Task: structure prediction
Amino acid sequence: MRLWIDGQCFQTASKWRGIGRYVQEWLLGIIDNHPDVELLVSLNAGMPQDALAARDHLQQWLKPANIFMWHGVADGGEGVDGYSEKRRLSEIALAYHVACINPDIAVSASPFEGMRDRAVPLVPNDISSIPVASIFYDAIPYRYPEQYLQSSATRACYERRLGLHAKFDLNLCISDYSRRECIEISENAHAINMLAGISKDFKDAIDHPELRSSRPTPKRFVLYVGGLDWRKNVESAIAAFAQLPEDLRTQYSFVLAGDHPKALLREEEERWRKLGLPQQDFAALGHVTDSQLVALYKEADLAIQPSLLEGFGLTALEAMTCGTLVIASNTGALPEVIGDREFLFNPADVADIARVMRRALSNREAAKTAAARQQSRASDFSWAKTAAIAVTALKDVAGKAAALRDVNSQARVEKAVLQKVEKIGLPRDFVSEVLARSEIPSSGKPRLIVDATSTYRVDHKTGIQRVVKNICANLPPERVVDGQSVELVVAYSDSLDGWFPVLKTLEKAKDANAFSEDARLQFGADDRILMLDSSWEFFKYHYKTLHAARLRGATIVSCLYDTVPLRFPGFCDPGMSPTFSVWFQAALAYSNAFICISKAVADELITILEGIRFPREMKIGYWHLGADFNQAIVRTDIAEQVQSARHNFLMVGTLEPRKGYALALDALERLWDEGRDVGLTIVGKQGWGVEHLIRRIKQHREYGERLFWLNGISDEKLQQAYAGSDALIAASYAEGFGLPIVEAAHFGKAVIASDIPVFREVTAGGQNCQFFTSGSSESLAAMIRSFLDTAPSSFEPVTNNGISWKESAEELQRIVLTDDWYRIYAPGDKKAYVPITDMGDIKMAGPLVRGDTRHKIELIEGPIVADNRTLKYIVRVTNLSPKPWASAGTAGDAFGVAASYRVLSADGDISYPDNDRSRIPFVLPPGDSLYLGIEIPSEFKRKGAAFAEIGLFQESAGWWSNPLQVPL
Result:
């Protein structure tokens, strides 16, 4: 049986309440016990953030392809706006959507959704002959209209929805009481009692109890679990507690557990005070976990359920299951749950409540016997039993309907829809668009869609572009995974127009229709989208289009090359870190997984996620880059030039501050001053912030003799440079991978590298590499001396040809398509329905206390005379506190943490900058370090200032102690 479920109760406030919990456990009961039932769930994309959170939640149990999207267009709740034209159109669109899926039977799991929000539940209809069932919980507003149906719009909405139960082919009721009520009100005899049960999570909490350090109150206690709205009748329970004999009452406290609005809680606290009860005997715990709730039930002497009316009584069943004696109202479904009439009371009679409460508390042995009896009765309820009852009834209705109904031909359904929408007074184009969004996209073969936007637009021929070109060129056009062929598509998107396929060679399209409407890619549940390129500047467009792809079930995998802009902003272009940070947050929102170019980067990502307590699961993998230098090397003037010195060292990469070129020059100058005849060849383009370095190179006494800079050379000449060198120097402060080290391995060259994790990782396969202390020119000089002075056999390069780009591409594809992840990050406090906008602790909510500001500041480099106006210092800030720090605050930047400087004159006067802040690009987690750039105007030095203090401060809270003093 193909069973369709309306999943909108997982998008509204119902997901936190009884209805959402009921439907979830009911679905799990079917999944666990009825493999012959194919479950299909649809969500309303008209509430996109809630739809995506619900999809992520449901994908724990359902295949992505079995979760569908349709698009409701109601502007607000029917109980507020009335039965509007847009709501009527949405009902038609949903019925059409279900007809397109064509299940054997459909279930409207919560027919009263959309009273106060945009949800539009499925209702009985004649668009198709698919039978429609409902889940009927209760008719409490019908019984108490003066409390729940105060406005005419709310009353009209409720009465319309309630009347629809007469037309459902089957009403699945949650108790015998609700079944009788449904039949009485609707006069529809097609209703059954399918009961309810205890959730898996709650049972797990019983089997694995949480150790509690203390009770919620020193005394024995009576426990109430649930809400505080009017019908819950908590005020009568409190009044009854006050009527207990004093000698009994003084032995007990009254404990509330539940997510209670502050206003309602204050009313109960005030009621307690007016009754003259001791304040310390009233405890309101707020929201508790299942484990905490189980502990509360087991510690309580008594659980009370005083509701005026309940459709079932789940909290009573939970308490019974834990072996806690329950007293409850003699109304609604509670009597059939408890089955113990001596512990039932009239909820409208406080004296009767007090009588039963006194009886339960006065005789502990009798109470213990009764609790055991109730616990035995609780075992009669289970979700497996509920699922079996429901599935049998649904199959029966579906079978009878199938024998009678005509085939739901597309033409018949479309004709019925057109007849319905003719009566809708909305623009035809709008109606057509709404209906089109309700159709089911055709499913083709699974695809791996690879983003190459930035490289396709402009190939800067630098690191990431080289990776993108080589990976795309070497990815096989198809790969078989689990017996299915997965097609490769290289794609481009630089606007909201969508995504378009391009050649895997990334040659520019010559076809005029390459970016036409017909060529646009439509994403589906079988697509995996690999965001391979550095398309950070397009994140605003990608966020929207990839969010839509996620709604349709596509898997988004973002590629992380490094975390340098987040952790080493002082070495980056000033605009790079903020841009990268915003992209990173967007990627965290829309991605299911990250694939990193090294284990080191993957570990850095995990550290960040743990540091901010990221609230959602994230899959994390890594792979290694390749190199293809297999062509014959032709000697040229470049090779001869490189080999002119006795020993020549090579550095490869864009000239930028973090690459350590200045550090290497410092080390070589020490050796030249010692009379060592060594050469240094630098191969790379000029990057950002190295004007002073370029001047230093070109004006150096050894330039053109033993110091060479080869700017923008061909791959052939780069190979010659590798071949003509003795060893590669990799002096970077930070890298995501270290591609030059891999390239050096193809030539069997030794490497002298800064001791950072990724260089250890890249050379772990047997490549000859000696490490020096990162950031230390003295250590680098010492390692070069060791290389020069050691017998050749000791530094004999171990030939390690590494992996090719073909092998690298295949490894990347394998990991992404087979879910072979390195780690799956899971939050410590796992929550359901977390919106993708929730990033965790990434903003400062208030001032930090003294222990939360512990830190260390160290000078790494400087002063660097970037120009005649500025002195630049690179400092390392280490967070030694248990709290993450950020420059962003929950209320603007009022409590943001930043670094700045104070200028000290020779006589001790201090000058403060007005707005000179060095901000944390994202978050500085506990135990981690951040490299910041501090720029101080050189005019202070000209005015006689001698020193500057570089330190941290928190906006609205002031400067922190222990600043770093640096000379100007």
About this structure: The chain has 35 helices and 37 strands. The longest strand covers residues 855-865. The domain at 637-802 is CATH 3.40.50.2000 (Rossmann fold).
